[in-house]
Every structure is written in C-alpha cells, then in structure tokens.
C-alpha cells in the first residue's frame, strides 16, 4: 500500500473516537508532567545536598529507573502490583509509569542546572546573611529554572511521545484507539498516518510554545 491508496475519508466515522484518544494522550501526559517535574526538582535537591543518605536515595533512583524500559515499569505497575494486593487501573498505571520514568530524567536535568550555578552566587548570598534555605529558594532555584527551561521542553515532548506505550496496558489513548479501529477496519495505513501526524504536530507545537515561553531568559548570562 502506498500514498496512492491513502483514503482518509473512510475514517470520518471514527474521528470522534480518535479525538477522544488524542485528548486522553494529552491528559496522561499533562498529569505525568505535573508529577514528575516537582519530584524531579526535589530529587535534584537531594542529589546536590550535603546529606549522604539523601544523595544515595536520589542517585539510586536515577540509576535504577533510567536503566529500566518504560514498558517494564508499566507492566510492573499494572500486572505485578495487583498480585500483592495493590489494585491499580490502566489509566493510573499509565500516568504513574510515565511520571516514574520522567522523574529520573528530570532529576538529572535539574542537577545539571544546579551544577551550572557559580559558587560566587552562594558566597554572595551568604555574605548578605541569608540562610541556606533562603539562598536555595531565592537565589539558586530561580536561576536553575532559567538554565534548564529549554531541556525541560524536550522532556515534555519525550513524555507525550512516550505516552503511546501506555496503550500496551489498555489505556485508551490515541495509539490504543488506532490499533483498536485498525483491527476492525484494516485501514492501518490511514490510521497510523493520522496518529503520526498528531504526534508530529504535538512535538512542533510544544517546541514553538516553549521557545516563546523561555524567550531570551534561558540564554541570558548568569551573574557572577
């Protein structure tokens, strides 16, 4: 089957279902982002803290999760946890799986931001009599966000694209609906063309909006 066989009109009756699948894709992606970004910042603070136990926990989490495929995480949440009396539905497992995976990468993104802050910033803040908590909250973290904003945009795109793997455990997002409709219509070419265009559009729109959001702030030189 080639481009000459493409007939999107046969899918018109299924567009509402595909639309709801696209909305579910965005829903689980937004929820995963809302969970993983704050957790990523907290984990990064643990990684750069003076507490060895906190550093060990955060480092262990990153090293373990980054070396486990997202699909395996989803299977553990959806298939293994219920065996031990922890029931979890597909949607919740999908969101948590994406969040668990994303948090590990987000920790490293924020940690890189913390590493980029000049030592002089800490020393100047201490000379003003600020306590360590205030130094972190008022001086360091705002600059870290400015540094990591572009990379966080890339992470958002990765989450949206990775959400397709949630179809494996039955989350009714776009890829799941595409496969389901394809099994009854056999119009896989048209269906996956639509799905591909949706993901491409999402990636491009996110990138554009993120560039507008960050503006020049992410590239502004740090004070010394």
Descriptive overview:
This protein is an all-alpha fold. The protein has one domain (3-219): MetI-like fold, CATH 1.10.3720. 73% of the residues lie in helices and 0% in strands. The protein is built from eight helices and no strands. The chain has helices spanning 15-47, 52-65, 70-80, 90-115, 119-127, 132-162, 174-185, 188-214. α1 crosses α4 (90-115), α2 (52-65) crosses α4 and α7 runs antiparallel to α8 (188-214). The mean pLDDT is 88.
Query: What pattern of helices and strands is seen along the backbone?
Result: HHHHHHHH
Helicity range: over 70%
Could you state the oligomeric state of the chains shown? single chain
CATH topology: MetI-like fold
Measured by DSSP, the beta-strand proportion falls in under 5%
CATH-wise, what's the superfamily?
A: MetI-like
SSE-based structural type: mainly alpha
Cα-based radius of gyration, to the nearest Å: 21 Å
Q: Low-confidence spans: pLDDT under 50, at least 5 residues? A: none
Level-1 CATH class name: Mainly Alpha
Overall mean pLDDT stands at 88
Tally of contiguous helical segments: 8
Q: Termini separation (Å)?
A: 61 Å
Largest sheet: none
Shape descriptor reads elongated
Level-2 CATH architecture: Orthogonal Bundle
Number of strands: 0
The tally of structural domains comes to: 1
List keywords for this structure.
224 residues; elongated; 0% strand; mainly alpha
Task: Tell me briefly what this model is.
With 224 residues, this protein is mostly helical. It has eight helices and no strands. The longest helix is centred in the first third of the chain and has 33 residues, at 15-47.
């Amino acid at each position: 089957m080639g481009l000459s066989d493409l007939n999107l009109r046969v899918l018109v009756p299924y567009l509402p279902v595909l639309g709801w699948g696209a909305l579910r894709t965005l829903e689980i992606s937004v929820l995963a982002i809302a969970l993983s970004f704050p957790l990523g910042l907290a984990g990064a603070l643990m990684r750069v803290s003076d507490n060895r136990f906190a550093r060990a926990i955060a480092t262990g989490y990153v090293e373990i999760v980054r070396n486990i495929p997202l699909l395996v995480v989803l299977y553990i949440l959806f298939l293994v946890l219920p065996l031990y009396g922890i029931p979890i539905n597909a949607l919740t497992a999908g969101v948590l799986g994406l969040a668990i995976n994303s948090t590990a990468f987000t920790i490293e993104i924020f940690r890189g931001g913390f590493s980029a802050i000049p030592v002089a910033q800490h020393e100047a803040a201490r000379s003003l009599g600020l306590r360590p908590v205030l130094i972190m909250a008022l001086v360091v973290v705002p600059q870290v966000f400015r540094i990591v904003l572009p990379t966080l945009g890339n992470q958002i795109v990765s989450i949206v694209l990775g959400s397709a793997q949630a179809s494996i455990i039955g989350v009714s997002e776009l890829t799941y609906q595409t496969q389901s409709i394809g099994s009854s219509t056999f119009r896989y070419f048209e269906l996956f063309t639509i799905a591909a265009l949706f993901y491409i559009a999402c990636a491009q729109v996110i990138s554009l909006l993120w560039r507008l959001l960050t503006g020049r702030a992410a590239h502004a030189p740090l004070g010394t």
